[in-house]
Amino acid sequence: MSRVGKKPVTVPSGVTATVEGQTVKMKGPKGQLQFVVHDDVDVKFEDGSVKVAPRHETNRAQALYGTARAQIANLVEGVTKGFEKKLEITGVGYRAALQGKKLQLALGYSHDVLYDIPEGITITVPKPTEINVAGIDPQKVGQVAAEIRDYRPPEPYKGKGVRYSDEFIFRKEGKKK
């Protein structure tokens, strides 16, 4: 069993952490985030670090306190460095462009797909075939990247579509004559 939950989350300088009941709030140079810890987990802020421990000796509490510790560590990383996902577009005529608060995607459909950029997320398009999704909330960044990828997931024969930059697409051989 993992012992990730036993390690305290150190709060770096420049970040203020407050624990009010079951709510952990982090404020740093990139912004402010908060996380509500489950009732089965005890959370304390002492000596410049946040410590979590299971309240009961149940399997559920054991499972949740490691998760709570990872979420709090993500809060610290989010308000200091932020999170980023890179997407690549492959295919003839497939491209992306920014139009104010919308992302315009040409993905082989009869129309261009317009994606509204949510609050707290910044999208940049360094090249027409690259999209960078950045923000302080890892869940939101991952969700936005997944929604953009869902417009045209990569297909296994030619590899056309939107994929994560570190994603491996298993290529299939076409039919033979």
From TrEMBL:
<comment type="function">
    <text>This protein binds to the 23S rRNA, and is important in its secondary structure. It is located near the subunit interface in the base of the L7/L12 stalk, and near the tRNA binding site of the peptidyltransferase center.</text>
</comment>
<dbReference type="Pfam" id="PF00347">
    <property type="entry name" value="Ribosomal_L6"/>
</dbReference>
<feature type="domain" description="Large ribosomal subunit protein uL6 alpha-beta">
    <location>
        <begin position="91"/>
        <end position="164"/>
    </location>
</feature>
<feature type="domain" description="Large ribosomal subunit protein uL6 alpha-beta">
    <location>
        <begin position="11"/>
        <end position="82"/>
    </location>
</feature>
<comment type="similarity">
    <text>Belongs to the universal ribosomal protein uL6 family.</text>
</comment>
<keyword id="KW-0687">Ribonucleoprotein</keyword>
<dbReference type="InterPro" id="IPR002358">
    <property type="entry name" value="Ribosomal_uL6_CS"/>
</dbReference>
<dbReference type="InterPro" id="IPR036789">
    <property type="entry name" value="Ribosomal_uL6-like_a/b-dom_sf"/>
</dbReference>
<comment type="subunit">
    <text>Part of the 50S ribosomal subunit.</text>
</comment>
<dbReference type="InterPro" id="IPR019906">
    <property type="entry name" value="Ribosomal_uL6_bac-type"/>
</dbReference>
<dbReference type="GO" id="GO:0005840">
    <property type="term" value="C:ribosome"/>
</dbReference>
<dbReference type="InterPro" id="IPR000702">
    <property type="entry name" value="Ribosomal_uL6-like"/>
</dbReference>
<keyword id="KW-0689">Ribosomal protein</keyword>
<keyword id="KW-0699">rRNA-binding</keyword>
<dbReference type="InterPro" id="IPR020040">
    <property type="entry name" value="Ribosomal_uL6_a/b-dom"/>
</dbReference>
<protein>
    <recommendedName>
        <fullName>Large ribosomal subunit protein uL6</fullName>
    </recommendedName>
</protein>
<keyword id="KW-0694">RNA-binding</keyword>
